[in-house]
Amino acid sequence: MAQPASGNPRKRSSKGEQTRTLILEAAMETIAELGLRGVTHREVARRADVQLSLTTYYFRDIEELIREAFVLFSARSRPNYQAVWSQVFDYMESFSRTELRNARVKREVCDGLAQRATDYLISRVMENPVGLSVEQTLFTAARQTPELRQLADEHRANLLQPLIVFCGHFNHADPEVDAELLLDVMTTMEYATLTTEAEHLDPARLLVLLRRQIGWIMGIKRA
Fold it and tell me: Which DSSP category does 64 fall into?
């Protein structure tokens, strides 16, 4: 005869969600280090320090595990990204439209934005290399399945949205084009910097590159 359930169902549910999240975090680590081919139930269970049977209990197959790991990554990265852009827009709003038409002020704003972008890029590489690697894998693996392609498209759209608003301050005709170019430049720089040892990072060079790109968007000939 089956034994009656014991304990608080809410606590069991909470513990189960914690275990599920632990597995997904281990899956993200595996993706970052080994790529999609390295994601197996056994490897993820080892990294999560859980029984192998739990990975198949919570996820019916590897495809679902990978997909849900990407979903968790995207959900976790969004609030920080929004917070960064909130600071950027607050900074820009400290200048009037009249001031932003002044060449000297535009250069000052460009310098401020470039420094913020540089600091953000370095913090991404230094503080969240796993997340950056997962993002890179998501974009490169997007063609493998319709589900991953949809996730990649949604994640990119979330990245683009504040960039479009930013570029719209200086380009009223087609800010989406400038936004895509800036996003591609920044992601390329992030992925290239990801493979660089911390002691070999060159913030000054990153600042020059970002200042030039942002200055171009702002209509500054040579930033």
Answer: H
| Buried-state track 198-220, b at ≥16 Cβ within 10 A, e below 16 | eeeeeeeebbebbbebbbbbbeb
Cβ-proximal residues to 28 (8 Å cutoff; 6+ apart), any chain? 69, 72, 73, 130, 131, 134
- Residue given tokens 């599920």 in the structure block: 20
Distance, in Å, from the CA atom of 35 to the CA atom of 16, rounded to the nearest integer, reads 26
User: Which residue, 123, 110, 130, 141, is CA-closest to 209?
Assistant: 110
| Runs of H (alpha helix) within the chain | 9-34, 41-48, 52-58, 62-93, 97-100, 103-127, 129-141, 146-168, 175-194, 203-218
Q: Strand, helix or coil at 23?
A: helix
- DSSP, residue by residue, 71-121: HHHHHHHHHHHHHHHHHHHHHHHTS-HHHHTSHHHHHHHHHHHHHHHHHHH
| Residue pLDDT, tens place only, 177-207 | 999 999 999 999 998 888 888 778 899 999 9
Distance between the two ends of the chain, CA-based, in angstroms?
A: 77
CB distance 113 to 88 below 8 Å? yes
| Residues 94-108, mean pLDDT to the nearest whole number | 91
**Torsion angle, CA of 123/77/153/67, rounded to 10 degrees?**
120
48 exposure class (CB count in 10 Å sphere: 0-12, 13-18, 19+): buried
Q: Do 30 and 47 form a contact (C-beta atoms < 8 A)?
A: yes
For tokens 């990294």, what's the residue? 47
